Amino acid sequence: MTTIGPGIHINGEITCDGDLTIDGGVTGQVLVRDGTLAIGQKARIVADLRGTRVRVVGEVQGNIAAGERIDLAATASVVGSLSASQVVIEEGAAFHGRIDMAQRTIAAKVAQYKAAQSA
């Protein structure tokens, strides 16, 4: 597991092949292949997030797409669209955006992102 600590802020793109925990700040894009992306309680993210599983406890401004599941904890604050086959929003979470749970849409978004990465 890789961790971006609370004292770190990254501007740009992060790509990871395993589990990633972000407790700091990120502006840009985050892609986690074959793992869980965890956004910690002190994290401040202004980025689009993609992963197999995404768990948000902190603050995200951006779209979140997951191949399997998105979890928003009670302390989460998200402004952006959620796209996954399973979406769980705990009581107390702040969410403003759209939810798309259609398998066809999710597969198209993942394929589009992969095509853009290989170009």
What does this structure look like?
The protein has 119 residues and is mainly beta. It has one domain (2-105). It contains 1 helix and 12 strands. The chain has one helix spanning 103-118; strands at 2-4, 9-16, 20-22, 25-39, 44-56, 59-61, 64-72, 77-79, 82-83, 86-89, 94-96, 99-100. Strands 1, 2, 3, 4, 5, 6, 7, 8, 9, 10, 11 and 12 form a 12-stranded parallel β-sheet that branches. The longest helix is centred in the C-terminal third of the chain and has 16 residues, at 103-118. It is globular.
Characteristics of this structure?
single chain; 119 residues; mainly beta; twelve-stranded parallel sheet; globular
Question: Helices and strands in order, then pairings?
Answer:
Blueprint: E1 2-4, E2 9-16, E3 20-22, E4 25-39, E5 44-56, E6 59-61, E7 64-72, E8 77-79, E9 82-83, E10 86-89, E11 94-96, E12 99-100, H1 103-118
Parallel strand pairs: 1-3, 2-4, 3-4, 4-5, 5-6, 5-7, 6-8, 7-9, 7-10, 8-11, 9-12
Number of domains: 1
Series of secondary-structure elements, N-terminal to C-terminal: EEEEEEEEEEEEH
What is the tally of beta strands? 12
User: What kind of sheet is the major sheet?
Assistant: 12 strands, parallel
Percent helix range: 10-25%
Structural class: mainly beta
Mean pLDDT: 89
Beta-strand share of residues: over 45%
Q: Please mark out the parts with pLDDT under 50 across 5 or more consecutive residues, or reply none.
A: none
Cα distance spanning the termini: 28 Å
The number of helices is 1
Radius of gyration: 13 Å
**Could you say which overall geometry the principal axes of the C-alpha atoms support?**
globular
